Amino acid sequence: MNEAQNLRRLLDGGRTIAAPGAPDSLSARLVQHAGFEAVYMTGFGATATRLGTPDIGLLTQTEMTEHARNMTRAVSIPVIADADTGYGGPSNIHRTVREYIQAGVAGIHLEDQVAPKRCGQMAGVKLMGREESALRLKAAISARATDDLVIIGRTDALQAEGIEEALYRAKLYQDAGVDLVFVDGIKKIADVEAVARAIEGPKVVSIVDGNETTALKLADLQEMGFSVVFYALTALLSATRAMHDALTELRATGAPEGGPAKHSYAEFCEIVDLGFHQQLDESFGR
Predict the structure, then answer these.
(1) Exposed/middle/buried for 195, CB within 10 Å: 0-12, 13-18, 19+?
(2) DSSP assignment, residue 108?
(3) pTM of this prediction?
(4) Torsion over CA of 49, 55, 61 and 62, rounded to 10 degrees?
């Protein structure tokens, strides 16, 4: 069973899948180490870790698919990846889908912003037309052919035009044939509830740290009927805070003792699976 088939098996199981965001392969390992069944490759995090810049459409298709390939190699759970807008026209979308499949990704989401896109939580989002967006999703479904890749239709209409347009587009994308729909940019519990009431069938929600939706538990979202929950930035924001505090303490004291709690060297080696490589060396090295 490949990971796309595994993701479909999980979706068919009826439980809401919690997929924490991972900005890189190391954090993807930590997601798996914590016992989660899937991981979300966040474009926000990928941009931050690769470029140190905001998520404003700076990473290319090849950079994103390379990032995804490294992540799928690092873990043995399904990776759901941000595929931005598909990186161009129908031919670009076709290549994007085939590249993500080759990378071993289990699922992708494609959004309806015009290029250059930006994080769905940001102001200033600009949308493609409804019908054009639906056709682009159909192009992705066609490119998938007989492969098992899960395709998620994402709309960023909430920030740009409001909840009614977001719901209209989500239903339109369902009609286009995507496996799940995803209204991004949600900051209010009322909007989570509106999506849950209006959208039947498989759907995704992203819970982003710093807004009121973090009060919702996984059980609440299960009851609302969401199939997948992305916790897109929890790991990234926690990690940058911890690194900031540790470095501030080191600069102030001149010694690495104290500051926030840290993994031991041995614990870190376990996370990156050093034992596996030592065993290879013992078995086949000289």
Answers:
(1) buried
(2) E
(3) 0.95
(4) -20
